[in-house]
Fold this protein.
Amino acid sequence: MKIEDLKELEFFSSLSLEEVSRVKLHMKKHEVPEGWILFREGDEGRLMYIVLSGKVAISIHTADGGDVEVSQVGEGSFFGEMSILEKEARSATCRTNADSVLLSLDGKSFNKLMDREPAAAVKIMQKMLNTTTARLQTTGAFLSDMVKWGENARKRAITDDFTGLYNRRFFDDALKQSVADALRKKSPVSLVILDMDHFGTINAEQGESVGDEVLLAAVPVFTEVFGEKDVLSRYGGDEFSFILPGTDGKTALERCQKAGAEIRNLKILEGRPGTIRQLHASIGIAVCPDHADNPEKLLDMADRALYLAKEAGRNQAKLYVDASK
């Protein structure tokens, strides 16, 4: 792109042609395909970008584990400027929505620009600050509306009405994302499947209302034993599934054994009729990438470990690696 054309872009609009020419020397050109993730929310901020052609979507990660697109930037726009101004971690994820050509400027190059071209750098900073302020105002209004009108509906869509844990639909999506993150970050993620032992017998002998009490009594055990970042879900009936990001098999097994012990300590069946007097659970665990590198296989490995736990007499946790011995 010619210097005269760059001068027409928002980022360079306050500069003279000579200043544009000198500033360009500090920038790098990138040709990226559609669907390319330039950076993710939470990543270290290093570069800001100017769109010469194409389109980039900006999205944020919501509390329910999803992503919401808050804006798109097209030809002539710039984004990621907070990495230059404040060296902040990325507050959003940016992905190309079309084949794109970008210019980038990193923090070190901007500091050199400040030293060598202070007048041009000040103009650029003013432009970035004005644009950033406008974006924050727009994004803030959008988020306020989303919280006001969508939070309750979104919560109902992703949670199990009875237990308050995540539902299976959310779990399925979260498992795909967790496996992808684990492979990208080269960090383990453990998958846990837990069944309440003899739950059918409890329902048959004492009624479904007692079975409901059993499920509700188990939920506080799960929330206490597992961490805030863990995804705790009711998979269906008396089966629960937990995703433990950043947790290896040994640690997952220890936590599951603790959960099993806490379930055994529940006194909810004491003094009631029926053949089952003590609650306990069977638990299967599998780890990505140790046992599987995709969600379907990981779920299958955890299910096999659960089967081994039941075959071994129930009331225990089994890690898949143990199941293969």
In short: The radius of gyration is 26 Å. Confidence is low (pLDDT under 50) at residues 145-150.
